[in-house]
Amino acid sequence: MFKKILIANRGEIACRVIKTAQKMGIKTVAIYSDADRRALHVQMADEAIHIGPAPANQSYIVIENVLRAVKESGADAVHPGYGFLSENKLFAQALADIGVAFIGPPVNAIESMGDKITSKKIAQEAGVSTVPGYMGVIADADEAVKISNQVGYPVMLKASAGGGGKGMRIAWNDQEAREGFQSSKNEAANSFGDDRIFIEKFVTQPRHIEIQVLADSHGNAIYLNERECSIQRRNQKVIEEAPSPFLDEATRKAMGEQSVALAQAVGYASAGTVEFIVDGASKFYFLEMNTRLQVEHPVTELITSVDLVEQMIRVAFGEVLQIKQDDVQRNGWAIESRLYAEDPYRNFLPAIGRLTRYRPPEETVSDTVVVRNDTGVYEGGEISMYYDPMIAKLCTWAPTRETAIEAMRVALDSFEVEGIGHNLPFLSAVMDHPRFASGNITTAFIEEEYPDGFDGVSLSEDALRRIAAATCAMYRVSEIRRARVSGRMDNHERKVGTEWVVALQDQAFPVSISADPKGANISFEDGETLRVVSDWVPGDHLARLQISGVDLVLKVDKITSGFRIRSRGADIKVRVRTPRQAELAHLMLEKIAPDTSRLLLCPMPGLIVNVNVAVGDTVHEGQALCTVEAMKMENILRAEKASTVAKINAQAGDSLAVDDVIMEFE
Question: What was the pLDDT predicted at 63?
Fold first, then answer.
């Protein structure tokens, strides 16, 4: 077996590979850029080597820099993770040239399947159903528009060497095709060093279902069932599950067998994924093959008990695959939620900064539930603007889909992240969405269910009552502590009352409370009484309670006269007041937000790529004003209404913070 493996990657996938290597007794080497000197993967590895400046195109995707680290460390194998150089044939060949094993497929498989144009042609020759499109290299935006019209809108513009949602745009008209072509080329060049773009028909209302394959260098190949990856935003997967709630056994078998045949046709050896879109009639179409480990591989591991990283290492060492197709089981259900550093209240724009609090739920393994968190960060660490915004992959397993979803709901409620914007509220909202719970999902789920973006969750009255009861009991505990403070003046005893008004989410609940050593009873005006049991004490940021026997997990922060509560995707300010305080509070004026309608504010920390207008220009609604790049993605900022540019405060190359003023209008 290999003695030392270098992980040519960073973040959570580097940490994931290190864990399996350590389990196998293999030494590990981390590489890091200037921005990752204190990263978790650097701390976990047996040794670490610096490879360059923060930008990936000056460090992680510079083959010469990585090869230098390989030689310096004496590693006899390299695991590329996903992204960066994982599907770069030149990197795999360079390793072969110096006698170092590449823990991935052969160079010819990377070349034929890693290139989306070539892979689609091979799939067509192998009899695999493919989506209509133009597979040739497109010279410029004018040709892109011409081809888009020939294929028929809507079309998908995709980077030939792309992956992970980078270099992909949907175009519904000529203008979007023209703009999308240039943005896709730029993202592809920055992320993969290859700016070739191809165009294919965009199939509306599809499901994204992929097959995990595993093959060795001795001609053996199997498939390990499927993953449903339809919950996507901007072509970036957000929630995955295994198996799919849609596939029947016949379709599953057909997709699996075609995937294996395709892998064998190119002499594939390693873990790989064949991606399909599936329509409502269960017809499936080949999209691409990812010749690497997928981000969402944990859900497959959870339902099959196969460590895919371990299998990749063993195959790369030349071992014969010990798992036969008949050995592959499908046990229970697994869900993965991708926790991203992005602000769901700002249209999911990237967020960077320091993790002032990072407390994942406890990882557990039992016959009834598994909670797993693959991460590459830690409390006090920093989320950089230079890389992918992923913080963690939270996974749950349970015997059924319903119980796996419920386990995920509790795990998300228990996940504490502070200091940056993140999508935890959105993930919780999806878990509670009736359409997701039913399994009736497509890749258009997010745009259909959240057409105006995500602005939080309004909880049901029953849920609000439970939170009201919980916070009333918690507030009483806080008041008792304040009443018992030492050093108070004589004759100034503070008494804790029993009558309160709990105000939250535009509702007010007058309640009375009676407590005993084991808990408290909260009585509402309509006669309902809820029993609250908890060991919460003031200062705890996480409260685990039972409300009349039902578990409730709340994230808690103290505010004046109450708490900021986060639960099930809702972010609520709860005020607990005496009846007289509530009466007076009702008379208070609300603060009016400042008018920013004449300003273009930077929606995220990022770099100005270009400014498309000048002072004095008249702009129309929807016109592109400037482009901001953050975390390898370009974002075009457009005019919300017709106006005239009065002042421009930023230019190409400027780094801006959130809400910095880019330009002003008359």
Answer: 98
DSSP output for 12-43: HHHHHHHHHHHHTT-EEEEEEEGGGTT-HHHH
Contact 507, 582 (CB under 8 A): no
* Residue 130 and residue 286 in contact, taking contact as beta carbons nearer than 8 Å: yes
The residue from 275, 288, 336, 629 that is catalytic is: 288
Higher pLDDT, 296 or 186: 296
**Phi, psi at 449, each rounded to 5°:** -85, -20
Asked if 111 and 96 count as a contact pair (C-beta separation under 8 A), the reply is: no
Q: What order do you get walking across the sheet with 166-171 strand by strand?
A: 133-134, 197-201, 155-163, 166-171
Q: How far apart are CA 421 and CA 352, in angstroms?
A: 8
Q: Are 361 and 411 in contact (CB under 8 A)?
A: yes
Q: Using pLDDT thresholds of 50, 70 and 90, give the confidence band for residue 164.
A: low
Strands 27-33 and 4-7, by their bridges, are: parallel
Express as a percent the part of the chain with pLDDT over 90. 76
Length of the chain: 666
Instruction: Identify any residues that bridge with 599 across adjacent strands, giving them in sequence order.
Output: 664
pTM above 0.90, yes or no: no
521 CB neighbour count, 10 Å cutoff: 17
Q: Residue 488 — very low, low, confident or very high, per pLDDT cuts 50/70/90?
A: low
Helix axes of 89-97 and 63-73: crossing angle, nearest 10 degrees: 30
Asked if 29 and 69 touch (Cβ cutoff 8 Å), the reply is: yes
What digits encode the pLDDT tens for the residues 375-386? 999 999 999 888
pLDDT at 493: 64
Tens-digit pLDDT profile for residues 46-105: 999 999 999 999 999 999 999 999 999 999 999 999 999 999 999 999 999 999 999 999
CB 243 within 8 A of CB 401: no
Per-residue CA distances from 290 to 105, 116, 162, 605 (Å): 10, 9, 10, 31
* DSSP state letters, 481-523: HHHT-TTPPTT------SEEEEEETTEEEEEEEEEETTEEEEE
For the segment 463-491, the average pLDDT, to the nearest whole number, is 86
Rounded Cα gap, residues 570 and 284, in angstroms:
37
Tell me the angle at which helices 89-97 and 107-114 cross, rounded to the nearest 10 degrees: 170
Burial of 538 (0-12, 13-18, 19+ CB in 10 A): middle
Amino acid at 306: V
| Gap between the Cα atoms of 451 and 446, Å rounded | 7
β-strands 618-619, 562-567: how paired? Answer: unpaired
pLDDT of residue 161 exceeding 90: no
Each residue of 322-331: b (16+ CB within 10 Å) or e?
eeeeeebeee
Burial label, 430 (beta-carbon count in 10 A; 0-12, 13-18, 19+): buried
Instruction: Compute the Cα dihedral for 592, 598, 603, 605 and give only its sign.
Output: negative
Q: In this structure, which amino acid lies at residue 8? A: A
590 is catalytic: no
CA dihedral 192, 198, 203, 207 (to 10 degrees): -20
